[in-house]
Specification:
Elements: H1 3-23, H2 29-32, E1 37-39, E2 46-52, E3 72-76, E4 82-84, E5 87-89, E6 92-96, E7 102-104, E8 107-109, E9 112-113, E10 117-123, E11 129-131, E12 134-142, E13 150-159, E14 165-167, E15 170-178, E16 189-198, E17 204-206, E18 209-216, E19 220-228, E20 234-236, E21 239-246, E22 252-268, E23 271-277, E24 281-297, E25 300-306, E26 309-316, E27 319-324, E28 327-333, E29 344-351, E30 354-359, E31 362-364, E32 370-372, E33 380-382, E34 385-387, E35 398-399, E36 405-408, E37 416-419, E38 421-422, E39 426-433, E40 436-442, E41 449-452, E42 459-469, E43 474-484, H3 504-515, H4 519-524, H5 527-554
Parallel strand pairs: 2-3, 3-6, 4-7, 5-8, 6-10, 7-11, 8-12, 9-12, 10-13, 11-14, 12-15, 13-16, 14-17, 15-18, 16-19, 17-20, 18-21, 19-22, 20-22, 21-23, 22-24, 23-25, 24-26, 24-27, 25-28, 26-29, 27-30, 28-31, 29-32, 30-33, 31-34, 36-43
Antiparallel strand pairs: 1-2, 35-38, 37-41, 39-40, 39-42, 42-43
């Protein structure tokens, strides 16, 4: 082979290898970190730094820079970016077009801007993870002489980012203040969201702690978690508490969770408490607006205060869903500046909402369990408990749910129903079978209560466990056992050994005939077998008749 050709080929291979190697490397942000820029595109001038990853990973976890000189750190086009273990003051983060981003264990505090902001904003970055961050003590103030009509403050904002997670974050002390008020700007709408999801499907929002959100101005909204068109999302084990809005004359609205224009969503095991709104106001634990197929279960909604409407769950223009095993307690009216305001207080309020199953919820110290307007129909509201003389600060025993048990009559396989109760103040339990007390006793937290449900008679059997704790709080759990008719009943006829020589299906049919067990077995038997059977019966009866006549003639 020509030496010149061999040398050229070697150089080409080296260059290709180098390009491939360098293409997989991350951006060295420390050597390319730009100086800050005065960006006048924002409503108020801010020191904005933008890092373009150009399709490569950026890791600023160990990058040394002063957040005092930077108010906005913007990262774009950098898949799998890592922002971890940072402690910043007066700085927020935007991540754009960077799928797989991880923002973990950072601290953000003391933000004080005069513009609409999210402390953490992730945009068009699917498969991202926002976890274990602290966002505290941030104040956003603005002058309504600006032309904007909506002003928003958000702790965490996730937009157009599918298959992501927001978990174990703490968001506290976010305050939006309207600096001055002019007549022309009286209806500027102020929003504070702890977490905001926009157009982000298949997202997990789990175990976040959101508290002390506040708005001071006119036409105010404070929402712990807001979600818009983010389908197939689950919200679980979040604690949303101690916040509200203050205003003088116009609309104020506080909600633990506000879900709108969304479908296929689960809201479970969350705690909402101490949500207040002063003046002419509304307060809700969970609000659904134009939703479809929503499951709300095992949530605690406690201490809501407002002057116009209070609802544990407010349904507006929504269809299909299930609301079960939730606890509502202590909804209280506050005074209004307006006159002749009739307040609406209920655990569940349905407005033009249909096809919901609302069952096995407990409402304590609330005047009305459910309110339905004239446009709500086809809802099933059953087995809910309304206790208007409840006790404040209730913590109810938690009982595991039970699946449906089903078996054929006569089947003696050993079967049990097992309940496990969790509570710090255990006391007594009672078990009812179709309304009749069959067992009672004392229970211990985490120790199973076992009930034998073997060989029950035909039908549906309702076994209901009522567990009480030492503070007189109680919870209810129901197990359904279905015993159905056996299509292949047991056969007590012992056939002759000759039947073993026949095919099994034919032998079984003959056994059923001789045992006279079922008419169905007779009908299902082959015609030739039926004919033989009746021929045999006819011959037997004819023989007995002739023998009887012979005996009579002899006598």
């Amino acid at each position: 082979m020509n030496k010149t050709y061999t040398f050229s080929l070697s150089i080409t291979l080296i260059l290709i290898s180098s390009v491939l190697f360098l293409g997989n490397q991350s951006v060295d942000a420390s050597s390319n970190f730009p100086s800050y820029i005065e960006n006048s595109n924002y409503p108020v001038k801010q020191r904005v730094v933008t890092i373009d990853g150009q399709g490569k990973k950026i890791d600023i976890s160990d990058l040394s820079f002063s957040s005092e000189q930077i108010q906005v750190l913007k990262i774009i086009n950098a898949p799998n970016t890592v922002i971890k273990n940072r402690v910043t003051s007066n700085m927020r983060i935007e991540v754009i077009n960077s799928p797989g981003t991880q923002i973990i264990n950072n601290s953000f505090s003391n933000l004080n801007f005069q513009a609409e902001n999210s402390v953490i904003r992730v945009y068009n970055s699917s498969n991202s993870k926002i976890s274990d961050n602290k966002i505290v003590n941030s104040k956003f103030s603005y002058n309504p002489s600006q032309t904007t009509l909506n002003v928003m403050l958000k702790g965490i904002s996730l937009e157009l980012s599918r298959n992501s997670s927001i978990t174990k974050n703490t968001i506290q002390n976010l305050n939006l203040t309207q600096l001055s008020l002019s007549t022309s700007q009286a209806f500027v709408r102020n929003f504070v969201y702890g977490i905001d999801l926009l157009y982000s499907d298949h997202v997990e929002v789990n175990s976040n702690n959101i508290s002390k959100l506040s708005v001071q101005g006119e036409v105010n909204r404070a929402v712990g978690i807001h979600s818009h068109q983010s389908n197939f999302t689950e919200f679980s084990n979040n604690s949303i508490h101690n916040f509200g809005v203050e205003k003088l004359f116009y609309s104020a609205y506080t909600s633990g969770m506000f879900i709108e224009n969304q479908q296929n969503t689960t809201i479970r095991d969350n705690k909402f408490s101490d949500l207040f709104a002063s003046g002419d106001s509304l307060s809700t634990g969970i609000t659904l607006f134009k939703t479809t197929n929503i499951v709300i279960k095992d949530n605690l909604i406690d201490k809501l205060l407002a002057s116009t409407l209070i609802a544990g769950v407010l349904l507006v223009d929504s269809t299909y869903g299930k609301i079960s095993n939730n606890r509502f307690s202590n909804f209280l009216e506050t005074k209004s500046k307006s006159n002749n305001v009739n307040i609406s207080i209920s655990a569940v309020n349905l407005q033009n909402s249909n096809f919901f199953i609302i069952q096995q919820n407990l409402a304590t110290n609330i005047p009305t369990f459910s309110i339905l307007d004239g446009k709500s129909a086809n809802n099933i509201i059953t087995n809910n408990v309304l206790d208007t003389q409840g006790v404040n600060n209730q913590v109810y025993p938690k009982i595991n749910s039970q699946p449906l048990i089903s078996y054929p009559a006569g089947d003696t396989t050993f079967r049990v129903v097992t309940w496990i109760i969790i509570d710090t103040d255990p006391a007594t339990y009672k078990i009812f079978h179709n309304g009749t007390l069959i067992k009672d006793g004392w229970w211990s937290s985490g120790v199973p209560i076992i009930l034998n449900v073997t060989d029950l008679p035909l039908g549906l059997h309702n076994f209901t466990l009522v567990a009480s704790d030492s503070l007189n709080h109680f919870s209810v759990s129901t197990a359904i056992v279905r015993v159905y008719k056996n299509s292949n009943p047991r056969n007590f006829y012992q056939p002759p050994d000759l039947l073993k020589l026949l095919p099994k299906n034919v032998a079984d049919k003959i056994r059923n005939f001789f045992s006279f067990n079922t008419l169905i077995a007779l009908i299902q038997t082959l015609p030739i077998t039926v004919a033989l059977f009746f021929l045999f019966e006819y011959a037997k009866r004819s023989y007995k008749k002739r023998k009887s006549e012979k005996v009579n003639n002899s006598s």
